[in-house]
Write a structure and sequence with these properties.
Length: 155
């Protein structure tokens, strides 16, 4: 039900804002603002996105929990979608999500509502099925080797 209300209210808010702002400043300045916010938003999303990618990479290299940088990356991606969507309300929310302090607050609010049961890092290895048995491939180095070419190449 909440999602339905969101899809209903956001376009209504955008239409109302377009009518109000367009009536105050005119059609072409309104369209110019929409285009400028899309261009500026694209630039900001790209620069902040690259910074977050570096943070995620650093988390993996230092074997730290990458949850927070990944969440920031998702919020930056979402803000980019909002900034490319024409409208004043979506632009305001999109620009707000580009502020690291606001993203941190959103992350803490969402994290407080999620209970993580376990967290594993790296590849999971399973123990051998039978103790003392190791599954491997081998080559007998004492076996006689054929003389001449290996057969891998043709003359």
């Amino acid at each position: 039900m909440r999602l339905f209300l969101l899809f209903l209210l956001v376009p209504l808010i955008e239409i109302a804002l377009f009518i109000q702002i367009g009536g105050l400043i005119g059609l072409f300045p309104t369209l110019a603002i929409v285009i400028i916010t899309a261009v500026l938003g694209t630039f900001l999303v790209r620069s902040q996105g690259l910074a977050v990618i570096n943070q995620v990479r650093g988390s993996f290299e230092e074997l730290n929990d990458p949850t927070e940088p990944l969440a920031h990356g998702a919020m930056i991606l979402f803000s980019g979608a909002l900034l490319l969507t024409p409208g004043f309300f979506t632009d305001a929310v999109g620009f707000a999500l580009l502020v690291p302090g606001i993203r941190g607050g959103v992350y803490r609010a969402v994290r407080s509502r999620i209970n993580v049961q376990s967290f594993e890092y790296g590849a999971r290895t399973s123990p051998p099925k039978e103790a003392g048995v190791i599954d491997a491939e081998y080559e007998d180095l004492d076996a006689p080797r054929p003389k001449g070419p290996s057969g891998w190449t043709h003359h």
